[in-house]
Amino acid sequence: MGGHTSPEDIKKETRTYLLVFAALAVATVITVTVSYLDLNRTQAITVALFIATIKGGLVAAFFMHLLSEEKFIYSVLVLTLVFFVALFVLPISTLADAVGEHFVMEGVEHGESEAH
Amino acid sequence: MEIPYTVEVRPDTGLYNAKMGIWLFLASEVMLFGALFSTYIILRTGNPDWVQHSMNVPLATLNTMILISSSVTVVMSWASLRLKNFARFRMYFTGTLLLAGGFMVVKAIEYNQEFSQGLFPWSDNYMGIYFALTGLHGLHVVGGMVVIGYLLGPGAKMWRTAPEQYVNRIECLGLYWHFVDLVWIFLFPSLYLL
């Protein structure tokens, strides 16, 4: 987004900003309302994060002008996204394995080693 | 020596340097907050005895509204400057500063309520991550307020001496501010509603 846009274009942009604001306000009300519904935990997390992602997308696309940016910025963001996903997937995947889990061998009392 | 590419676009990136800089900074910020969000998930999923306190949702909803309003005022102030309407820019930009101040006041009220209920960062894992995330986010709001204050006050002289560079500074501040809003958009449901 540069400074070489016509005044008409800028005025059009400001109308879009107001529409986005209205959408964000409505989405916030929906998020809070849904949190009072009797949803199970998975449903609640899915709905809340889905709405948050839409809101975040609106902010990034319109307020941060990511709909029409330079390639360089997209490259930076793709690289960031890769590391961001790794930041979540790597620690969370450790929950799926058994490394570090406490287990008790049959016939051995807690705290005793086999040598005793 | 004049600093290059403060206004004109660098041919290889297609951006002026400050904009490239702010996006690289925001990328590092994504990782900073991402690490804390990841920690929150690990702590919560890994603890069968997780204590979830019910926080003040109405105050947090009010703060969400305040922050998204401030995102609009900051982008409107940038648009006003591009239309060369400094008076309107000043109005929107001052509005952004006031909204940011309002956010911090509401947050202070909320913290005060939590302290009076005996809830401190060391109380349990939830309160620890809650104060770490909201505190770090609050520091970002304060940082933004300092820059907005500077650009409204002494920094505004640049509008007369180098108007294009000033517009670019406001755009960079705006990008930072939208990011602060974006983080809150995810913090709000994660900490208050789930």
Q: Could you give the topology of this structure?
A:
The complex is a heterodimer of chains A (116) and B (194).
Chain A: H1 7-35, H2 41-63, H3 71-93
Chain B: H1 17-45, H2 57-82, H3 86-116, H4 125-152, H5 158-161, H6 163-193
Give a quick summary of the entry:
The complex is a heterodimer of chains A (116) and B (194). Chain A has helices spanning 7-35, 41-63, 71-93. Chain A is mainly α.
CATH class of chain B: Mainly Alpha
Biggest β-sheet strands, sense, barrel of chain B: none
The helix-and-strand class of chain B reads mainly alpha
- The residue-averaged pLDDT of chain B reads 95
- With helices defined by DSSP (H or I, 4 residues minimum), what is the helix count of chain A? 3
Distance between the termini of chain A: 74 Å
- Output mean pLDDT of chain A: 85
Report what the structure shows.
The complex is a heterodimer of chains A (116) and B (194). Chain A folds into two domains: 1-64; 68-97. Chain A is 65% helix and 0% strand. Chain A is built from three helices and no strands. In chain A, helix 1 packs antiparallel against helix 2. Chain A is flat. Chain B is an all-alpha fold and 194 residues long. Chain B has a single domain (17-193), classed as Four Helix Bundle (Hemerythrin (Met), subunit A) (Up-down Bundle). Chain B has helices spanning 17-45, 57-82, 86-116, 125-152, 158-161, 163-193. Chains A and B meet through helix 1, helix 2 and helix 3 of A and helix 1, helix 2 and helix 6 of B.
